[in-house]
Amino acid sequence: MSATKNQEIQVDKKQARTLQGRVTSNKMDKTVTVLVERQVQHWLLGKIIRRSTKLHAQDDLGANEGDLVRIAECRPLSKTKHHRVVEIITRANV
């Protein structure tokens, strides 16, 4: 019995991985498409190049196109949606 208590105590909640990106589309209902850019070094040349990933995120805050948002990983919400919008960092200039 003490072994199970120790296991429960040692189990910590995982810190959700957060990313920053720009909203490219908000045409879906409560879903936004976020473009996340990262910089990596080219394997041969050594030059820094940009790579990007488009992710779908649950949007309860009402983000619009062009907004800079912070998203966090969460449980799968649909086939392609595994993130949620945590905060809107910067609103787009309209």
Question: Overview of this structure, please?
Answer:
With 94 residues, this protein is mainly beta. Helix content is 10%, strand content 52%. The chain is built from one helix and five strands. It has a five-stranded mixed β-barrel with strand order 1-2-3-5-4. A hairpin with a 6-residue loop joins strand 2 and strand 3 (48-58). It starts with a helix and ends with a strand. 13% of the residues are buried. Residues 8-12 have low confidence and may be disordered.
* Low-confidence runs of at least 5 consecutive residues: 8-12
Topology, number of strands: 5
**Alpha-carbon distance between the termini?**
61 Å
Average pLDDT reading: 90
Share of helical residues:
under 10%
Major beta-sheet overview: 5 strands, mixed, barrel
CA-atom Rg in angstroms: 18 Å
Strand coverage percent:
over 45%
Tally the helices: 1
* Helix and strand element order: HEEEEE
The geometry reads as: globular
Q: Spatial order of the strands in the main sheet?
A: 1-2-3-5-4
Which structural category fits the helices and strands? mainly beta
Give the helices and strands, then pairings.
Elements lengths: L1 H9 L7 E11 L2 E11 L6 E11 L9 E6 L7 E10 L4
Concise account of the structure shown:
By secondary structure, this protein is mainly β.
